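A further point concerns the way the authors explain their paired sequence and structure data. Showing the layout once, in full, would remove most of the difficulty. For illustration, here is how one protein appears when written out as sequence plus structure tokens:
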Amino acid sequence: MHSLNTRPDPSFSLLLSLPRELRDRVYVFALVSDSPFWWPSKSPDTDHHNVSASLLRTNKQVYSESIEILYSQNRFLFTHPSDCNVFRVVASSASVNITSIYFRIRQKDLKLWTAYLGSKQAERSLKGDLPKLKSLWVFLRCGAMGLPAAFGSLQAAPVGALGGPGGHAQALPIALGQQMHALQQQVALGGNQAQTGGNQLPPPPPPAPAIPFLQFAQGPLGLGGPHHGHHHHQNHPPHVNLLAQQQLQMHQQASIHPPLFHAPHHIGSMVNPQANRTDPRDSHTLFSTFLRFERELGIESLCLNLRDALYSGPSTSMNFDSSSSSDASSAAGSPPMASSNEPRPEVKIVCIVHIPRRIMERVVALHPDELVVDAKTQDARTRFRKLHGIEVSLELNGCPPLRPGQDATYHGDMHAHEH
């Protein structure tokens, strides 16, 4: 009689006995998450990854078969330009297989990101760190610049007073003129307070818009001319033009810390009436207005750097239409043709602006053909349009958030989970 006491083979594995195609499906089910992995910061509590990373410790064969799936089919989110580069160093060598990433960019860090994304160095660049990149989503938080200032004028005005889709854009020069007039009054008051002894001079009248302020102060007012010796009873500091100096100092500070309205850009637009006019054939007036007011933020530079770094082939022209009204890429707005047959990664930029929800609803009513309201979050966003070959969209986050207990900055940045 044969003995029935047979011992099981310790090297036998039900998982490894399956065909490779079925094992790959098991790996995907166990290791792929619907939510992105944040690094080095912790993912929000609303993100449930449900990933069984312990499967990688089963044995060497399982590890070698599944580690590539872990990196190639998951999405990773970074919030600083150095994070992606450092992650490639501290993570497994299999992280070279990453294909999908999110970048969450704050407005103050945009220059750092632009330098990294446009770098072509092998040791520190997006293409060098992620050679197999297929999808890149950039969530750019624009803060309270440009459009929020324009929407502020909508809050005080009734809906009927706007007079159509371009009403909010027409209110911008008026609001800017009021701010500039108030600024000049503050400078004049500062000059009067700085007089040391003697009689104080009355505040000078505001300068004519057609003459630069410094030229007006030194010319018609005579503040910068030679001292003729009159009014000897007044104790003026020698060779000091307080009003002009304070104005010059405020201009220098504005160049370092630009105001909400980007004064230099808007002043140029007011001098040239054609600069504030939108193309009547352009059906994307809100998007075009946003790009015009946010030009100094650096969105165009970011798009140009991404195009030159990720799309093979040198750029043949730098003259691109930044406010093209067509979703299809034109010859000027298209990225340079690739010199090889390697696929180009998909790059999308979402510019996020937080405004009061009632203002957002009013803007949606003014631009029903341009804005699409998300059924889940009730936030509004434009369709993606080409900017130097890169897909760009404007998203308006209504504050406070629609659902109680949820952070508005989070659900606005994470809407790409649905794609």
